Amino acid sequence: MERLSITLSHFESFSLINNWTDVEKGLYLAVSLRGQAQGVLGNQPKDDRQNYKKLVQALQDRFAPSNQTELYRAQLRERRQKASESLPEMGQDIRRLANLAYPTASSDLKEVLATEQFLDGLHDSEMRLKIKQARPVNLNDAIQRAVELEAFYRAERRQREMVRSVDTEVSTREQRLESLIETVQKSLTSLEQEMKNMKRSQYRRQKSDDKGSDSKGKGVRKCFECDSPDHLFKNCPSRSNQGRYDVRVQTNGQNNDKRQVKGDESRNEGDKSNREEKHSRNIQVIKESGLYVKASVEGMDASLLVDTGATISVTSKVVFETLSLTCKYSLHAVKDELLAANGSPLEVIGRTRMCIATGQSKLEQDFIVANVNVDGILGIDFLSEYKCVIDIERLVISVLGTEHKLILEGMSTSYKISLVNRISMPPRTEVIVKK
């Protein structure tokens, strides 16, 4: 209907310029119709096709019936601002609907109705109140004020968004800092609790050790030698320093004379005549677990422990004192301290050089004379100097290419573990332990 009204208005203006008559206007209107409007022309009687008034009436009946005014009025009342629609576009559409809804009303009335509907269709209630307070005279005045207010509001919203973004960044930083502080506090609390638990555990352990050392019950095991609860008889330091051994001395054709020799006692009680005689001796002491080879030390049969963990070779104090009964050996002082496998210091007498016979081979070796529980120990110095090869599977040792049988002594399924130093380590820590 709107397009028909616009077209007819344009046609009327054009006909006035050219001073057309009604017959000429009918002819020009008929030849200018296109599409569905041309079909309306074909439906008219032949005599009415050049009649301008009847042709206009037919077009209005077809495209702008008078009974649609109620529809346009309803559309005008429900008209609201669309999401992507500008205020001038909305005002123009409301003006169109007002003209269609009230075709017979005066222009002033249409202007008032369009202005009221424009204000009611605005989304922003604050803008609506401000425009009403300004009392616009017509629709164009209301549209102009609405456009100005919209520009002001848009600039204000942009400024608020910038401030809000800055506030959001500051708030985010504060939240991160608070979260970090909370995490550190939790870690410190957990660490303090672990330290408290460790101190309590250490206190209980120390208290238990004190009670165990003070108690005299049957469950406390003590050393038979020095009555100390810290070790047993076999590990007693005083016993190790005394160095008691059972020594059997066998002379030619005579019965075995069993004597007890102490490491701290001298052998001056022996008979001088016996010292001058040549003896065939056989020394046998309590042995440690390990591999032994039968050898002759200065003519005396002995079982020597093959120990790859010992850096130097050692002979026992008993063997040295027994050999000293018949022959004098030069004994050199040793300044270095020797430690046993359990960390306890050994009583070192000195260093001497002896001859060892293994089979047909006679070898000379430097020995440290110390208070040990075996006849002697062949260390790395002996094994490397005489190119020794140990075959565990066959239980043989090769000395300078000659094989000798090894004897496996005292091997058991239980092993002794000695605690040299007590080290306490907090959980989740590393400690470099130095001797």
UniProtKB/TrEMBL annotation:
<dbReference type="InterPro" id="IPR036875">
    <property type="entry name" value="Znf_CCHC_sf"/>
</dbReference>
<dbReference type="Pfam" id="PF08284">
    <property type="entry name" value="RVP_2"/>
</dbReference>
<feature type="compositionally biased region" description="Basic and acidic residues">
    <location>
        <begin position="206"/>
        <end position="220"/>
    </location>
</feature>
<protein>
    <recommendedName>
        <fullName>CCHC-type domain-containing protein</fullName>
    </recommendedName>
</protein>
<feature type="compositionally biased region" description="Polar residues">
    <location>
        <begin position="237"/>
        <end position="255"/>
    </location>
</feature>
<dbReference type="GO" id="GO:0008270">
    <property type="term" value="F:zinc ion binding"/>
</dbReference>
<dbReference type="InterPro" id="IPR021109">
    <property type="entry name" value="Peptidase_aspartic_dom_sf"/>
</dbReference>
<feature type="region of interest" description="Disordered">
    <location>
        <begin position="235"/>
        <end position="281"/>
    </location>
</feature>
<feature type="region of interest" description="Disordered">
    <location>
        <begin position="194"/>
        <end position="220"/>
    </location>
</feature>
<dbReference type="GO" id="GO:0003676">
    <property type="term" value="F:nucleic acid binding"/>
</dbReference>
<feature type="compositionally biased region" description="Basic and acidic residues">
    <location>
        <begin position="256"/>
        <end position="280"/>
    </location>
</feature>
